[in-house]
Design brief:
Oligomer: heterodimer
Distance between the termini of chain B: 41 Å
Number of strands of chain A: 11
Number of helices of chain A: 0
Shape of chain B: globular
Helix content of chain A: under 10%
Radius of gyration of chain A: 13 Å
Number of helices of chain B: 0
């Protein structure tokens, strides 16, 4: 089954404790992206990756890191989480950037709800 | 800069009634437009998309949307709402000059009354 998986689905942590949210897709997609969803703000892009070893900042990259060492995986790293990073996080993938070649559908993972105390 | 506005934060409709969710965008060129649905506890699912051509776009689950360039709008419609349509709906525009990312609206939460 074609899908984007994220782990963990729920996470409660404390300020400053490094964490990683994993994202994996099995569709051989080149483009992957991380979003955060906050009430009243919709989804905002954190980072994206055009392909292996190619990553770039989105709209709200502060406090986050990513890596793309393999095509299928795109982990999101919070080196020192803070309470303002409490949010719902989504990973997404597609063959190409959805705004450039929109015939490629962007698939979303189920989300990771993160609470930073 | 490109932006997307969904004026209605929350809408309640009765089951069987018609539905229209509003979406307005700000974009210099012909936009690529999308509607996504997010059911509780789920990720986002693509309902429909517009690139060019026919301005009335058909999607899944009986939804359709109409692109109106003169009004900078891409409103989502459904003639008869089902209880299972209760969800949050997001309109998005593809930002051609920003790496092709999607810019999302704030979302509209739909409740369906029996």
């Amino acid at each position: 089954e074609a899908q984007v998986t994220q782990n963990p689905r729920y996470l409660i942590t404390v300020t400053g404790k490094k964490l990683t949210v994993t994202c994996s897709q099995n569709m051989n997609h080149e483009y992957m992206s991380w979003y955060r969803q906050d009430p009243g703000l919709g989804l905002r892009q954190i980072y994206y990756s055009m392909n292996v070893e190619v990553t770039d900042k989105g709209d709200v990259p502060e406090g986050y890191k990513v890596s793309r060492k393999e095509k299928r995986n795109f982990p999101l790293i919070l080196e020192s989480p803070s309470p303002n990073q409490t949010s719902l996080y989504f990973c997404a993938s597609s063959f190409s950037p959805p705004g450039l070649r929109p015939k490629g559908e962007q698939f979303f993972g189920p989300g990771t709800r993160l609470t930073v105390l | 800069a490109q932006s997307v506005t969904q004026p209605d934060i929350h809408i309640t409709v009765s089951e069987g009634a018609s539905l229209e969710l509003r979406c307005n965008y700000s974009y210099g060129a012909t936009p690529y437009l999308f509607w996504y649905v997010q059911s509780p506890g789920q990720g986002l699912q693509l309902l429909l998309k517009y690139f060019s051509g026919d301005t009335l776009v058909q999607g899944i689950k009986g939804f359709e949307a109409e692109f109106k360039r003169s009004q900078s709008s891409f409103n989502l419609r459904k003639p008869s709402v089902h209880w299972s349509d209760a969800a949050e709906y997001f309109c998005a525009v593809g930002a051609l000059n920003q790496g092709g990312k999607l810019i999302f609206g704030q979302g509209t939460e739909l409740s369906v009354k029996p």
